[in-house]
Each structure stands twice: as structure tokens, then as C-alpha cells.
Amino acid sequence: QVQLVESGGGLVQPGGSLRLSCAASGFTFNEYHMVWFRQAPGKEREFVAAIGNFGISLRHDKSVKGRFTISRDNAKKTVYLEMNSLQPEDTATYFCNAARRWSEIATAKNFETWGQGTQVTVSS
After folding, report:
1. Residue-wise pLDDT tens digits, 82-104
2. Which run of H or E residues covers position 95?
3. For residues 113 and 124, what is the distance between their CA atoms, to the nearest angstrom?
4. How many C-alpha atoms does 22 have within 13 Å on its Cβ side?
5. Distance (Å, whole) CA 61 – CA 77
6. Measuring CA to CA, which residue among 37, 124, 17, 121 is closest to residue 79?
7. Is the dihedral of CA 56, 66, 37, 12 positive or negative?
8. d(Cα 63, Cα 42) in Å, to the nearest integer?
9. How many Å apart are CA 35 and CA 106, to the nearest integer?
10. What is the pLDDT of residue 1?
11. I need a labelling partner for 105 at 20 to 30 A (CA). Which of 56, 61, 84, 115 fits?
12. CA 32/CA 11 separation, integer angstroms
């Protein structure tokens, strides 16, 4: 049974930083590409970043490029999202997920199972 547990969210001032974690279980972690999505109130869930199963391939949405960095630790079965220079428009619930094919990473509808997410609020 796939389980994804996101953590690390919180309230931060504009310009601040947070590091999100996603602990995975129930599947062979190093066979899956890992993805972060986010969803703001009243908006659709949107792609943030993805990392290949061995950590070589990377993709960041243009809205976060240069500010956010995705990484993974296959031994710990955990994926991270380092977020710097946070802005109010980054406020959202952040979710991780696992994809077998790189072509699937950017579309939320490709994923059936979701964790609870972790809330990030950027406000002064």
C-alpha cells in the first residue's frame, strides 16, 4: 500500500525558507520518479518539481526555478523540497507523489493516491 507522508510546512515571512520532506513507503522507492505538487485555495493542483529515480533528472516549474530545489535520499526513502525566497504566492498545501514514467510527472490527474499534504503559508 502506497503511503506518502509530507511534513515541514509552516508559517514563514516573505523571503524566508522552509524544507519540506516526504517519507514514502509501500513501494520500491528507487524505481519511481518523485514529484512535488501544490494546491492553493480555489485553484487546481499544480506541478512544482520532479526528480528522477536515481536523482539525475531534475525539473522545476518556472515559477519556482532558482528558488526551490528538489532532492532525494533513496536510502531513507525520502524526497525533499528546499524552498528559499518564499513569496505570498507560494502559499499552498504541498503534496508529493511517485511516478513510474517521466512523462507522467507534471499532471496531477495521473496520480490516484495522495497524502495529506503539508501547509505552507507565506505572510508577514
Report:
1. 999 999 999 999 999 999 999 99
2. strand 92-99
3. 34
4. 30
5. 23
6. 37
7. positive
8. 18
9. 8
10. 83
11. 84
12. 30
Closest CA to 19 of 75, 73, 100, 74: 73
CB crowding 27-37: b at 16 or more within 10 Å, else e: eebeebbbbbb
60 — phi, psi (to 5°)?
A: -125, 135
For the segment 59-89, what is each residue's pLDDT rounded down to a tens digit?
999 999 999 999 999 999 999 999 999 999 9
The grid coordinates of residue 105 equal 510527472
Amino acid identity of residue 81, one-letter, is L
- Spatial CA neighbour of 62 closest among 47, 74, 79: 47
Distance CA 111, CA 67 (A): 26
Q: How far is 83 from 73, CA to CA, in rounded Å?
A: 17
In contact, 22 and 6? CB cutoff 8 Å? yes
22 bridge partner residues: 6, 79
Rounded Cα distance, 10 and 18, in Å:
8
Give residue 2's pLDDT: 87
Residue 114 is placed in which grid cell? 495522495
